[in-house]
Amino acid sequence: MDHEQAEWNRFCRAIESVKDGLILFCTGAGISKASGIPTFRGSDIEAVWNRSPMELGTYAFFEETPVGHWEWFLGRFDSYFERQPNPAHYAVTALERWQQARGGRMTVITQNIDLLHDRAGTKELIHIHGDMGHARCTRYGCENGAPKGKIRFDSLDFSAFRAEPRLEHIPRCSACGSLVRIHALLFDEYYTSHRDYRMRDAMNATQEARLMVFVGTSFSVGVTAAMLESAHLRQVPAFSLNPEVETGDWEGVGVMNLQVNAEEALPRLCEAVGASM
Ligand SMILES: [Zn+2]
Prior knowledge:
By secondary structure, the chain is of the alpha/beta class. The protein contains eleven helices and ten strands. Helices cover 36% and strands 16% of the residues.
């Protein structure tokens, strides 16, 4: 048996062995790649401003130019509303059902705002970075703004803005008249800035998890690093599915990486453990 196969078998056995405990998934951009959503690197829309997503996806940029903020968001994310979940998203839902049926629990923390897990039917879901189905008022304390409020994105009329991107065409909050912004964690903001990011729930799940599975993400930022530290301290097994990293121990971070595509591997996992998709 080769090394890859041995690690794969270990992964399947680890999933099976959790039984009535909590399996925690953490998904990032890689799981949505097969749905046609590019990972968060520079694209055409960023080139227009000659800046990186990390500069455009900030509140500082909103303050500099609210028009630019919305042009960037619509330019990058508008087409995502038409994307469909891929087999990896459906497999996650199948695993959740399977895990619940045997008396266990499964929680999915996603960094993605694309709502593809929701549309694939996953129930125990934490959108740690917000979601593109909502916007919110920029005025803190407004019923439609942080720390608790939000506005359904499809209730806002962007037609005038799309035709002519100007400040006076950005939709306003119906309660207070302030400008609206995207309902997503920007690079210069904190998880505590809105209740919907559910950082506390994510950390509680992290403390309870008996197994962690990372899909299509790296360990450089925020929540993944915190989860991994917890896994390490409590000696909880952690696996990662990432086709861009060779199978084996991910350098020094205590995760077993499997060099596989999620859209192939997760359905295969379902088959291996008997979770019907
Ligand atoms: Zn408001």
